[in-house]
Amino acid sequence: MKYLTLAVSLGLSAAVVLVVPGSGATASMQTATVVDRAHPVANKYLKQRPVWTQCGDKELRTYCAKITAPRDWTNQYSGNDIQIAVSKVAPAKGKPSRVIFGNPGGPGGAGLGMAPYLASQAPLAKDHLAVGFDPRGTGDSTDVTCEGAPGYSMDARDRDPWNLDLIAEASAMTQPYCDRQSRGLLPYVTTAQTVQDMDLIRQLLGFDTIDYLGYSGGTWLGAYYQTYFPEHVGRFVLDSNTDFTQPWINTFVAQPPAFERRFRADFATWAAKYDGELHLGTSPGAVIRTYERLRAALKKQPAVEEFLDGSVKVGYDQNTLDSIISGDLYTKLDFYSLAIDLAFLRDLSAAQTKGGPRAAQRQVDALSPARQHELVQRANRGVVGLPPLGRMIGDDAESATFTAITCNDTPWPQGREYGRQLAGRLGPKNPLLGWTMTENPCFYWDRPNLTMPTPTGKGLPTTLMVQSVHDPATNYSLAVAAHNRYAGSRLLTVTREGDHGVYGGVNKCADKIVNAFLTTGKAPAKDVSCAGEGIPAPSAPAPELEESGEQGYAGSAPLRRIAGLTKAVSGYLH
Fold it and tell me: Could you read off the pLDDT of 438-459 as tens digits, one per residue?
């Protein structure tokens, strides 16, 4: 992405030239930093008339369309256009008086399911037009891909120089793979470009202001939309927060201690409480030791098993185990499934150690077809919400978009040394994820020439931030830090809770406050808190998969429901 200085871009952009203090910049401003701003929209994009098509089952009442946007908002006349997939659900009766946009996070998560999800919230359904969209790079929009790029099959805990070299080489090779296959779009998959896409959608829908609900990485997107388009900001809710006032690296460095806290303080304590049923350990420490012993066994001898009469192969090693655990910490509704899977893997590994691969396969063959199907699904399930660096979050387009946005948006230290030092600092106390800080393409990424304005909240209406205290993916400390820097914000804290993604069924108290804000504009006069509702006992049924063409999670995990709805309404625009 190229940003012109103010001297040569008058009439095209509201760019601002800032001279970096102490830089020794001369009158020619050769070392000036150009801060990106909103760009006026060319008439050809404003004149388009989207064709809305029903997408998904009739009862979802969802309509989808594609709109045309420039590949690069700073160069709208280049002829390199892209397509953005948009969804909407209107009130069942009457015309909407407001519009609410939604984003499920990632960044890079497909978001067409946000429209039916928002419309399913009764207080919002009365007079809001609900809108979702697949951000550029992912879903049914023009996408990017990193297919074939080397993954991280190495054990990040292994500190041998040769292993660290392999991790570094894999990280450095990511961008060339992504760039080569993404048809020139990769440098333009940024938050700066995406907020312009959002505002084009707003204009085409005919609303002066938008309300907004953003989860996880969607809090970053929401804060930047507010910064770029303050005059079009309505009621904004940011749920499970990144620190959008600081570079991306701050958010990811805070993840290892947050995941470790969730694993030890919440899951291990819960599993130990119900050891009579789960048999993972009678104390939190014993549960952690069960995990460490299993991890060591799977590293020494991975288990590769055939499921469903040999139609699917699933391999379990130490990295698979860590991914299963971290993926199941996002919602307490997955704790029961995680406990069952840990017991299964422990028995599978023990059978393999004692009797060899055939004995392990007999363990799998003894399972019911339904249980085998469940294990296959869970082995291939992507993360919903902000994933740890180096972890896949779904299909390749989502993962590629995640990498592009996090590496393109803000600067990262370059080279392998910083990652190694970071892993060495975080790994010993946070072994679940701390050692994986070396697995990061951003340390080797050639960023576009982009400097975005820092979100401050100044001059904006009240922003409502929602956060659970033990959120694994977006550390509570991030919400507190961003809140303290974001003028006019209110922080709603859910205590005794760790779910990532709160609004929409996790906590009745929090839902009431959010709904009041979104429907009336009434924000809390000061920061408030709601008490968590506890982790269900293991005898409670695990979340069932709903059968609606595509499978999505039922129950009360908002991001799972959104992911299921996105699958249900996607693919109708091809």
Answer: 999 999 999 999 999 999 999 9
**DSSP letter assigned to residue 471:** -
Strand partners, 86: 65, 133
The residues, ordered by sequence, that sit 6+ positions from 418 with a Cβ below 8 Å of its Cβ are 443
Q: E-assigned strands of 246-326?
A: 303-307, 312-316
pLDDT at 543 over 50: no
Alpha carbon distance 160, 435 (integer Å): 13
82 in Cβ contact with 70 (< 8 Å): yes
Q: Cβ atoms within 10 A of the Cβ of 425, count?
A: 14
Q: Is 25 within 8 Å of 48 (Cβ atoms)?
A: no
CB 189 within 8 A of CB 418: no
The count of residues in the chain is: 574
Ramachandran angles phi, psi of 275, nearest 5°: -60, -30
Is 134 within 8 Å of 84 (Cβ atoms)? yes
- Measured distance CA(369)–CA(307) in Å, rounded: 9
* Cα–Cα distance measured from residue 207 to residue 482, given in angstroms and rounded to the nearest whole number: 29
Query: Which residues does residue 201 pair with via DSSP β-bridges, in sequence order?
Result: none
Task: State phi, psi for 254 to the nearest 5 degrees.
Answer: -80, -5
Smallest CA-to-CA distance from 218 within 132, 144, 146 is with 132
Cis? peptide before 150, omega within 30° of 0: no
Report CA dihedral (455, 445, 145, 501) to the nearest 10 degrees: -40
- Predicted local distance difference test score (pLDDT) of residue 198: 98
The token pair that represents 167 in the structure block: 């991790």
Q: Tell me, what's the pLDDT at 34?
A: 80
Lowest mean pLDDT among 169-178, 225-234, 373-382: 373-382
Three-state DSSP at 65 gives strand
Q: Which tokens hold the place of 197? A: 């896409």
CA dist 196 and 238 (Å) reads 19
Task: Give the C-alpha separation, 345 to 351, whole Å.
Answer: 10
Calpha distance 87→494 (Å, rounded): 31
pTM of the full structure:
0.92
CA distance readout (Å), 557 to 238, 347, 407, 507: 17, 29, 29, 10
**Residue 92, burial from CB neighbour count under 10 angstroms (0-12, 13-18, 19+):** exposed
DSSP alpha helix (H) spans, 428-541: 476-485, 508-520
Task: Name the DSSP class of 514.
Answer: H
Phi, psi of 35 (to 5 degrees): -90, 125
